[in-house]
């Protein structure tokens, strides 16, 4: 599914209105009716619509009219007097008023009053429609608008946001001030990138896309969710005429904590690598499964020259200070593809100083590691996840996967994918090593860095979901995630098969 920015959506709106000749008021009516139709499915006893002064507010007025038409008790609280509205928003308000929709200009406490008796489930179910701020607003909500948002969040009504939650940046997912915490969001024509990326995704709840008849041109969109359908049979399907060499060799540089390398090696095998080699000065075969080749006696740059993809970082420990030498020796030896994780990320960047690496490497920082690379703090990274991932990718010239809820995969050229799979079951030590192993295996099998990082995140997240379902999210270990990778491959095959 494609994810659009506010600028991209504005272009698609413009083309529909001016090139195709669909009047803007018709699109507004489609949007408002889509909201009303969904709210009707919730079987509310009372609906309160919060309307701003822009086009988003116009959608809210239309929704109120359609709900009134359906015989549902509805009331509008507006952030400004209707006489101050302009254009299609004013037209929508006039039609709603003529239809008998009651309205009031919002004052502090008026929302609580409108929901009185419904808010706490006394006389039935209340639904609140958030139509305050649209895609064109990126500044923090202030004054009366901020009060409306805060009062909405304090209510116990079920909240449905029109297009995106008010206060969330449509293009970045940043939440610079007060923002509505919706139970669900009705996205118009296409989901906005800001509701796919955390923290905006947390505020959006469940996102449903309403088809308004606005054509969205994929060639003009730079972001999307990770979807198995995009990869087809490039992974997960094998012909009879193959052998271990067909699926590549993964090399893992062993450091001082072999457990992390063990997890990465087993994950790479479960993700389809034909051969996995672990190498280091003190490598011990007894520490690894018999399926893994262990090479001892020299530095990894010498021992891993024959692999198709290398994983550097998991378990390096104090040897992390040597990662720079290992990494660039491997690149010079021709192993210019793989995964850079954990301590090895310091070989690429520290405190904002970057040393570009080969473009077919994937960097896999978690928020604290990303913060060290950029010279930020972890809270800044979490508040500006999209910007952080894109900045690291552009400055390192390597694909960057920023771990966390709604993992962001950024290409140096600005393209972005957001991974929809995963759960809190993955919040345990070692799952990052598992992810590195999966991505390394996909690179060895011939996927480019951007595709390998994207599909790797999807498989890893689905395996984590499956482990959480079986074991509870509290009791999952990294080894449990590896054990569920076959389930993730089956899920991938099922989705690809359903799309063809």
Automatic annotation (TrEMBL):
Entries under PROSITE patterns matching the protein: RHODANESE_3, YJEF_C_2, YJEF_C_3, YJEF_N
Cofactor(s) named in the record: K(+); Mg(2+)
Superkingdom in the source lineage: Bacteria
Organism: Alicyclobacillus mali (ex Roth et al. 2021)
Functional summary from the UniProt entry: Bifunctional enzyme that catalyzes the epimerization of the S- and R-forms of NAD(P)HX and the dehydration of the S-form of NAD(P)HX at the expense of ADP, which is converted to AMP. This allows the repair of both epimers of NAD(P)HX, a damaged form of NAD(P)H that is a result of enzymatic or heat-dependent hydration. Catalyzes the epimerization of the S- and R-forms of NAD(P)HX, a damaged form of NAD(P)H that is a result of enzymatic or heat-dependent hydration. This is a prerequisite for the S-specific NAD(P)H-hydrate dehydratase to allow the repair of both epimers of NAD(P)HX.
Residues of the Rhodanese domain: 33-86
Alphabetic keyword roster: ATP-binding, Isomerase, Lyase, Metal-binding, Multifunctional enzyme, NAD, NADP, Nucleotide-binding, Potassium
Binding site for (6S)-NADPHX: 55-59, 134-140, 163, 260, 315, 366, 433
Name of the protein this chain belongs to: Bifunctional NAD(P)H-hydrate repair enzyme
Family: Belongs to the NnrD/CARKD family. Belongs to the NnrE/AIBP family.
Gene: nnrD
């Amino acid at each position: 599914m494609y994810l659009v920015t506010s600028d991209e959506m504005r272009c698609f709106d413009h083309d529909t209105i001016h090139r195709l000749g669909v009047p803007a008021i018709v699109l507004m009516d489609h949007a408002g009716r889509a909201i009303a139709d969904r709210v009707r499915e919730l079987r509310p006893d009372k609906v309160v619509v919060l309307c701003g002064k822009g086009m988003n507010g116009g959608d809210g007025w239309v929704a109120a009219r359609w709900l009134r038409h359906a015989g549902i008790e509805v009331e509008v609280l507006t952030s400004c007097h209707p006489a101050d509205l302009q254009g299609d928003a004013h037209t929508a308000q006039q039609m709603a008023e003529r239809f008998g929709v009651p309205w009031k200009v919002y004052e502090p406490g008026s929302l609580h009053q409108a929901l009185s008796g419904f808010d706490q489930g006394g006389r039935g179910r209340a639904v609140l429609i958030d139509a305050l701020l649209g895609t064109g607003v990126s500044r923090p909500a202030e004054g009366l608008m901020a009060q409306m948002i805060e009062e909405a969040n304090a209510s116990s009504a079920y909240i449905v946001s029109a297009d995106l939650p008010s206060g969330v940046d449509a293009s970045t997912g940043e939440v610079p001030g007060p923002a509505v915490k919706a139970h669900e969001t009705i996205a118009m024509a296409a989901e906005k990138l800001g509701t796919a990326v955390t923290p905006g995704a947390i505020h959006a709840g469940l996102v449903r896309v309403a088809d308004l008849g606005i054509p969205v041109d994929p060639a003009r969109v730079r972001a999307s969710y990770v979807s198995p359908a995009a990869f087809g049979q490039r992974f997960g399907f094998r012909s009879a005429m193959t052998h271990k060499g067909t699926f590549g060799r993964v090399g893992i540089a062993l450091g001082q904590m072999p457990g992390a390398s063990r997890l990465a090696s087993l994950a790479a095998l479960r993700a389809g690598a034909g051969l996995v080699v672990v190498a280091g000065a003190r490598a011990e075969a007894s520490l690894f499964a018999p399926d893994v080749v262990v090479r001892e006696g020299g530095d990894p740059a010498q021992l891993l020259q024959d692999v198709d993809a290398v994983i550097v970082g998991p378990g390096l420990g104090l040897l992390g200070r040597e990662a720079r030498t290992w990494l660039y020796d491997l690149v010079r030896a021709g192993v210019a593809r793989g995964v850079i994780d954990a301590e090895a990320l310091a070989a690429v960047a520290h405190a904002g100083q970057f040393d570009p690496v080969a473009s077919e490497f994937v960097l896999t920082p978690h928020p604290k590691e990303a913060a060290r690379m950029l010279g930020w703090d972890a809270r800044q990274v979490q508040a500006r996840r999209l910007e952080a991932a894109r900045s690291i990718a552009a400055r390192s010239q390597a694909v960057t996967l920023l771990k966390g809820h709604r993992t962001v995969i950024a290409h140096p050229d600005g393209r972005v994918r957001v991974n929809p799979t995963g759960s809190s079951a993955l919040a345990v030590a070692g799952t990052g090593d598992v992810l590195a192993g999966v991505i390394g295996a996909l690179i060895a099998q011939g996927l480019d860095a951007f595709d390998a990082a994207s599909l790797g995140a999807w498989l890893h997240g689905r395996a984590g979901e499956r482990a959480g379902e079986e074991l509870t999210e509290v009791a999952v270990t990294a080894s449990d995630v590896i054990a569920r990778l076959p389930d993730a491959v089956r899920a991938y095959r099922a989705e690809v098969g359903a799309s063809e």
